[in-house]
Amino acid sequence: MTARILDGTATAQALLDETAERAAKLTEQLGRKPCLVTVLVGEDPASVTYVKMKGNRARKYGLESRRIVLPETSTTAEVVAQVEALAADNTVDGILVQHPVPSQVDEPAVFEAIGAAKDVDGVTMASFAAMGLGRPGFQSCTPGGIIRLLDAYEVPLAGQHAVVVGRSPILGKPVGLLLLERNATVTYCHSKTRDLAEVVKTADIVVAAVGKPELIRGDWIKEGAVVVDGGYNPGNVGDVEYAAAAERASWITPVPGGVGPMTIATLLAQTVDAAAARVG
């Protein structure tokens, strides 16, 4: 068996085109473009690159993009005050606080200052609860993008055994909640899991989200399983041994070109959703 590709680049492009159309209509209704503000604390090179890329993509598809850069030495109170000001600004639809923040800043406290209505990155407790309870709200962008990608290729989720390897609050945990909401049976694996290989071998759907190059070996993949690689490591290497896994899987995401493009597309789509909610 040779796996078919879950093409995140093409699927994201379709979502971005749709988002641009919606943004144009909302611009007419609001008298301004839907607005995404990114808050960056410090000058971490990778974070600077990500923020710039997100801003460029937002502008390309009809959104206003603002960037606020705070000093590396900022305190929690200072960052929270800035985010609260944005939350109260009626010209701002979505707020993204770039992760990670410096160690002296209480990141969860900063996230909570965003408020659920502008949490287009899906990082607040309210958004997490909405994902877990199946209520309206914004999804964490990478998990939400994964579900959109699986839906685009009509991959069945109900009744499937999904194994999520990783339990981070921005990927592993929320993607498991979203899969559970779609009636998959979900098993979480992590650094304390015994016999990881044996657990992965039982999966109909494998979601790798650990940030360790090729941790998931190809011969762990059950014949016909769907493999979603949410990892990205130096050298364009994911968390799954791609070539070997592709010989056994029915569907697989490439790295790059799989999950990554869906993350930004989902962020922009949710920003337009937030703007639409303001219109009512």
Automatic annotation (TrEMBL):
UniProt-listed Enzyme Commission number(s): 1.5.1.5, 3.5.4.9
Residues covered by the Tetrahydrofolate dehydrogenase/cyclohydrolase NAD(P)-binding domain: 140-277
Molecular function terms, GO-annotated: methenyltetrahydrofolate cyclohydrolase activity; methylenetetrahydrofolate dehydrogenase (NADP+) activity
Positions bound to NADP(+): G166, R167, S168
Domain Tetrahydrofolate dehydrogenase/cyclohydrolase catalytic residues, every copy: 6-121
Entry keyword annotation includes Translocase: no
Coiled coil: none
GO biological process: L-histidine biosynthetic process; methionine biosynthetic process; purine nucleotide biosynthetic process; tetrahydrofolate interconversion
Catalytic activity entry: (6R)-5,10-methenyltetrahydrofolate + H2O = (6R)-10-formyltetrahydrofolate + H(+); (6R)-5,10-methylene-5,6,7,8-tetrahydrofolate + NADP(+) = (6R)-5,10-methenyltetrahydrofolate + NADPH
Pathway: One-carbon metabolism; tetrahydrofolate interconversion
InterPro entries for the chain: Aminoacid_DH-like_N_sf, NAD(P)-bd_dom_sf, THF_DH/CycHdrlase, THF_DH/CycHdrlase_cat_dom, THF_DH/CycHdrlase_CS, THF_DH/CycHdrlase_NAD-bd_dom
UniProt entry keywords in alphabetical sequence: Amino-acid biosynthesis, Histidine biosynthesis, Hydrolase, Methionine biosynthesis, Multifunctional enzyme, NADP, One-carbon metabolism, Oxidoreductase, Purine biosynthesis
Gene3D superfamilies the UniProt entry points to: Leucine Dehydrogenase, chain A, domain 1, NAD(P)-binding Rossmann-like Domain
A Gene Ontology cellular-component term: cytosol
HAMAP family linked to this entry: THF_DHG_CYH
Subunit: Homodimer.
Task performed by this protein: Catalyzes the oxidation of 5,10-methylenetetrahydrofolate to 5,10-methenyltetrahydrofolate and then the hydrolysis of 5,10-methenyltetrahydrofolate to 10-formyltetrahydrofolate.
Family membership noted in the UniProt record: Belongs to the tetrahydrofolate dehydrogenase/cyclohydrolase family.
Name used for this protein in its record: Bifunctional protein FolD
